[in-house]
Specification:
- The protein is mainly α.
- The protein has one domain: Glycerol uptake facilitator protein.
- It is built from 13 helices and no strands.
- The two termini are 17 Å apart.
């Protein structure tokens, strides 16, 4: 049976990892974040092709189609964690641990968040343009193109508060997925730990700002009549704010408080390696 890191040990590991990330040179963090944006976009593209191409299943059983969409989407998140790329949404929780312990300053947290978001944006937009649009995968003849357009149109035309709340839940699950991924000793355990929460938030139709940086621009490239202003104000802003609240206030801070540096530290079995 695979062993896992205890929660208190894991929080200390995340604290050290977040401090290290806060000290990275901006170009390095930006490149890591660009890769993270690309990986998330590729997971989204795979989900579109698989679930959006299952037109018969979509008509007969839309719930099962949502499950299929959610089941394949996490490959991007798995790649982010296993390859050491960077994702803004998981940083929302991770950076709160050393901030709570007063080991880094608020301006350092803001710097990580901004660089991470910028890199994710560049990577996701590049993937939408280069890997989805230029390859012809968004042609009108493809069965998943109307699926993508309906998905993006729905995301843009929801009330601000609805998108915000969906963003909160989305990043709670994303951060839980990232922390579960860090907790496992072996690669398979890490993959399963990441997969389950990510599949859940995607199948439920929650709002992940970085994923939306791929889905909605890709739909716009495919002909969806949505302006950049509508995309930013009606989806990206509330989704991002919700992601911040869900990650920082509902995952990062509670665990930083529960497992403080003095109260939460315990010895770990010697046969468990850090992820």
């Amino acid at each position: 049976m695979a062993q896992i890191l205890t929660p208190s040990y894991l929080v200390n590991y995340i604290n050290d990892a977040a401090r290290h990330k806060a000290g990275l040179h901006p170009p390095r963090l930006l490149v890591m974040s660009c890769l993270g944006g690309i990986y998330i976009a590729l997971g989204g593209l795979l989900a579109l092709v698989v679930a959006g191409g299952a037109t018969g299943l979509l008509a007969a059983n839309p719930g099962l189609d949502k499950l299929l969409f959610g089941a394949v989407f996490p490959v991007g998140f798995i790649a982010v964690v296993l390859t050491g790329a960077d994702l803004f949404t998981s940083n929302c929780a991770m950076q709160m641990v050393p901030l709570f312990r007063r080991q880094i300053r608020l301006e350092e947290v803001a710097r990580v968040w901004c660089l991470s978001y910028l890199g994710n944006l560049i990577g996701a937009l590049f993937a939408a343009w280069g890997f989805a649009y230029l390859t012809g995968m968004l042609d009108a003849t493809q069965p998943w193109t109307p699926y993508l357009q309906r998905l993006a149109e729905h995301k843009v035309h929801q009330p601000f508060l609805v998108v915000f709340i969906k963003g909160v839940l989305a990043n709670m699950l994303v951060c839980v997925a990232a922390w579960q991924g860090y907790s496992a000793k072996d690669t398979l355990g890490r993959m399963v730990g990441i997969w389950a929460p990510v599949m859940t938030f995607v199948a439920l139709g929650m709002e992940h700002s970085i994923a939306n940086l791929f889905f909605i621009p890709a739909a716009m490239l495919a002909g969806l009549e949505v302006t950049t202003t509508e995309f930013v104000l009606q989806n990206l802003v509330p989704a991002t704010l919700g992601n911040l609240v869900g990650g920082a206030l509902l995952v990062g801070l509670p665990y930083a408080w529960l497992y403080t540096e003095t109260e939460g530290k315990v010895d770990q079995p010697s046969d468990i390696d850090l992820p």
